[in-house]
Amino acid sequence: MGTDRYAAMFARLAARDELAFVPFFVLGDPSMDESLALISAAVEAGADGLELGLPFSDPIADGPAVQSAVTRALDAGTRISACWPLLRAVRDAHPTVPIGLLVYANLIVHAGVEAFAAQCATAGVDSVVIPDAPSLEQRWFAEAFARAGVALARILPPGAAASRVAEVARASAGYVYVTSRGGVTGADDTVQADSASVVAALRAAGAAPALLGFGIAQPSHVRAARAMGVSGAISGSAVVSRIGAHETAPARREAVTAFVREMKAATRP
Predict the structure, then answer these.
(1) Is 4 a catalytic residue?
(2) Structure pTM?
(3) Among 87, 94, 146, 153, which residue's Cα sits nearest to residue 118?
(4) Helix (H) or strand (E) holding 113
(5) Residue 57 burial by CB count (10 A; 0-12/13-18/19+): exposed, middle or buried?
(6) What is the spatial distance between Cα 167 and Cα 151, in angstroms, rounded to a whole number?
(7) pLDDT at 89 over 60
(8) Which residue among 48, 62, 126, 167 is the active-site one?
């Protein structure tokens, strides 16, 4: 099942009092050939899990950095059909690492929900998060993915109503994606503590572990996440910005490796 690798990861890290560090990459950024090398560099540098995005022309939940990464991937000729073998290659290279897929609802519906879920399972994906699916439609997606053995991770913003928190807690699988703010993705200078009450309510309701995302860009943000009580942090814009800031493959790999090492170090007590 898609929850098994997450459960093993969270148990292993909890025994060491560490948070999970989960970097995000757009598949095919900056090219198909280099994408696997960068993802593997992150795992080798200490990433505990992976969040990977399918390049999509209208990533409405993403800010400028991720949009630029998507553009790089699409300009390099990346197509969804080529992402499945790439995902399988990531899984084969890193058999124990949880792999989450961030995907917009249009891509799933276009392919057919059951067919898309089956492709995820075949590629070795553990979870899917759909940032633009309304809450009432999440159950429809979740049932199809569950039949394929893939978890549907839910998203909660700061200030979520108690009824919404309870709903997500009941349905949670793998992990819960708690955002540090409303709006779109993007690196921040500081991380607000507004999500702490949501995290506490999820814990009290017995939800799957929470990962904090949106704006996680510095080691201090990881330490702030620990103070909120989450089990880990997801960093996307800061990762893909480093890919975009360098013009050679060695420089991109070095930048990603250094960033992941720095952020992973901050997960330790």
Answers:
(1) no
(2) 0.93
(3) 146
(4) helix 113-123
(5) exposed
(6) 16
(7) yes
(8) 62
- Pick the catalytic residue: 18, 29, 51, 126? 51
Query: 71 vs 29, 95, 100, 213, 239, CA distance in Å?
Result: 8, 29, 21, 22, 15
User: pLDDT of 203-252, one tens digit each?
Assistant: 999 999 999 998 899 999 999 999 999 999 999 999 999 999 999 999 99
The phi and psi torsions of 131 (rounded to 5 degrees) equal -70, -20
For the chain, domains (ranges, CATH) are 4-265 (3.20.20.70)
Q: Which of 173, 168, 166 is nearest to 148 (CA)?
A: 173
Tokens of 166: 């309870």
CA dist 111 and 215 (Å) reads: 31
Alpha carbon distance 98, 9 (integer Å): 8
75 noted as active-site residue = no
